[in-house]
Amino acid sequence: MTKKPTKGDLQKEVLTLLEHVRCCQEGIARINQADGDNGHFQNMAEQLDAIVETTETATDGILVNLETIGNVTDSLRSAGKESEADKIDAAITSAMEACTFQDITGQRVGKIRRSIQFAEERVSAMADAIGRDEIVKIANSMDDTKLGKELEDALLKGPVLEGDGVSQDEMILPL
Q: Which H or E run includes 61?
């Protein structure tokens, strides 16, 4: 036989729910605080787009070079060097097959991007439900130094989008 909930049990559950709502509000406030000009979610989407673009560019470059090598093997065949040309053609075919990763990468990144957009829509809906003014109040009451340190640490890692950061040319030191 199950125990009938008491008024104290109900109060405890309501307090637990209120604590979860407060945690969600703080999380949404942190996201809004980190948004900057482009928005935290928008930056993630841009990073994913940059991954797809970079892999497409790299794959295209590889394929162009493989085609050039293929033309050289035709010259080897014409010169009677069938064995060497066959080995090179086998390597070219293997490299071209390996380049199919780009299409799969693009598909996977597309799925991740759609998930991020879904999360962005949900967070925006929650922010609207809580009230943007309330979120600003919560954000203003939070410890900015910890969030600032987390953002700084995140920004110091990994590649940057084109036009952001320092280029390799700028990193070359004079001899």
A: helix 40-78
pTM more than 0.70: no
Domain ranges within the chain, ordered by starting residue = 12-142
What's the token pair of residue 73? Answer: 């093997």
Instruction: Count CB-CB contacts under 10 A for residue 12.
Output: 12
Long-range contacts, stretch 145-149, CB < 8 angstroms, 24+ apart: 147/30, 147/33, 147/34
Predicted confidence (pLDDT) per residue in 13-72, tens digit: 767 776 777 776 677 666 665 555 445 666 777 888 888 888 889 999 999 999 999 999
The helix (H) or strand (E) run that includes residue 69 is helix 40-78
**Distance of alpha carbon 143 from alpha carbon 147, whole angstroms:** 7
Instruction: Cite the DSSP H helix spans in the chain.
Output: 7-34, 40-78, 82-98, 101-130, 132-141, 144-155, 168-171
Number of H helices, E strands in the chain: 7, 0
Whether 159 and 49 have beta carbons less than 8 Å apart is answered as no
Mind listing the pLDDT tens digit for each residue in 127-139? 777 777 776 677 6
